[in-house]
Amino acid sequence: MTGLRDGHVVGGRTSDGVVRVPPPEFDPVTHAATTDFVGVASEGTVVSWTWVPEPVKAQPLDHPFAWALVKLDGADTAIMHAVDVASNDAIHTGMRVRIRWAAERVGAITDIACFEPADTAEHSESFSADEGSAEGVTGVITPVSLDYVYAASPEESAFFRGMAEGRILGQRCPVCRKVYVPPRGACPVDGVPTTDEVELAGSGTVTTFCIVNVPFLGQRITPPYVSAYVLLDGADIAFLHLIQGIDAHDVRMGMRVEAVWKPREEWGTTIENILHFQPNGEPDAAYETYEGHL
Amino acid sequence: MRDVAVVGFAQRQMKEFEGSPTCVELLVPIFAELFEQTGWTKSDIGFWCSGSSDYLAGRAFSFVSAVDAIGAFPPVAESHVEMDAAWALYEAWLKIQTGEVDTALVYGFGKSSAGVLRRTLALQLDPYTMTPLWPDTVSIAALQARLGLEGGHWTEKDLAAVAQRSLADAADNPYAIRSGKEGVDELLARPLYADPLHKHDCSPVTDGAAAIIIAAKDHLPTTAERPAWISGFAHSVDQADLGSRDLSGSPSARRAAISANVGGAPIDVAELHAPFSHQELILRKELGLDDSVSINPSGGALTANPMFSAGLIRIGEAAKQIWSGDAQRTLGHATSGPALQQNLVCVMEANR
Ligand SMILES: [Zn+2]
């Protein structure tokens, strides 16, 4: 990675004499750490290729391009990367290609922006390696982002529709009669879908809780704050939510709480309609009333 | 070694499952079907093992929610692999070998359609030198296909013949999501999808789930008239660096076949988990299967390929061939990772 940052490719010679690019951390035969590093050229030959008419998010090029296995001069193994050519007629096995370096290099595989045909006008050679920074690259950051389409199950769907009407809907298992909220596709005791709809009150008992002190990515409330299991009155399974309106250190097991809803005009089919739970002023529930839910 | 047989198999495969992101809901009817096949209840199962992926589901610990489908109270002995459930079957088989349990139910599930599958699968690649480029599975398979074409290992016609046979066979499989009567020439005339592959050379994005019951000798359900005895079971893996592998072959498939003694006697039917046409050709060569072997009568992965259960389904389909009396010795194969990186082989026989 340090080599990439400095604008050249480094391979590793393993015990079988093979120069591998990228260099493996450990020898595939002896399992010893790779120590024999070899510089290879930034030009090479296409070993195999395929055409990508519609690139997907985060690939090296956002217009149609070719993926190729490229054997760089001086290396014995090929590296997979993108080749920027106009069409699948413009690439073939055996074609000479060279690295197009990224404008800004940080010590990551993406420092190689892509490959390009080696017969095009020179512009990669104009770069002069930054001789001043001798420090090696010690870390790589690989951002990963995936998108999903969330399809609610029939049971979840009923719950979210209820939310949009300001109602908390659970369902009763037809076998053990327990009430689950949110309802689920299968009772964890009996393995059958829950059926009869049960509307629950907005009040309940804190069974257990934790004080969140650790900041993390995407956090919306400043720590310390309380995340708690609230056993809604009439439900047989606790519900995970936030407790606000009280100092985090005063939250306790058995505390009686009620749901605090967003203004009605902001309601959607989401659990976020309930902002948080807050103490409702009732005396604490006796331990026996929730001990079976811990 | 304890004698262990496959005695139950149920599956669901579909283009798009219109339920929550995990396909867990599919497990409830599948388990019910297995209990009907065996006459058992959940208390007859000594061990539960699943294969699935959080990356596919888009939520952490998604396999924990699957335990709901079991009805896991009182608690059950349970385990999970972040791999195709064929590997979960291997774990369950080992567990029975230890003598700790006598029976196991193995299941796999996944909703491939929830995300962009070929992007999701980029996360199984080397996280330093490959994932940041987001190479997609189809493209990697296409690089492999071209190496074989230009290296003289197979022709475009060979690939089309695999697709043609798979699509035709799938017409009899109610779970296949793709089938067709097109001939080889018609298939070759279709446009390229990922040069040199056509769309019919690539398995379709599939949602689904499947489950298998295995049991040790003296613990079989009374319904098992012709159990599929597991006589060889092995898996192996090739190195992660694509460039260092000879992609026109699959050494790990060869090693697994040797360990499972595939060549010890003739194989009647082989169900191969080949998500791309050319990969079937590689597997037939590496597993030593000649033209007398019936390959993928179910239509195979080219006609339905639910992630994390397609490999297990191959073993179930191969077991069914024994139950029905149509075959004496069959083979189920599963693969995982890019370009046949990991391979598992399960040989089953009518006689023990
Ligand atoms: Zn129940």
TrEMBL record, chain B:
Highest taxon in the source lineage: Bacteria
GO molecular function, one term: acyltransferase activity, transferring groups other than amino-acyl groups
SUPFAM superfamilies, A to Z: Thiolase-like
UniProt-listed NCBIfam families: PRK07937.1 (NF005924)
Protein name per its UniProtKB record: Lipid-transfer protein
Native source species: Nocardioides baekrokdamisoli
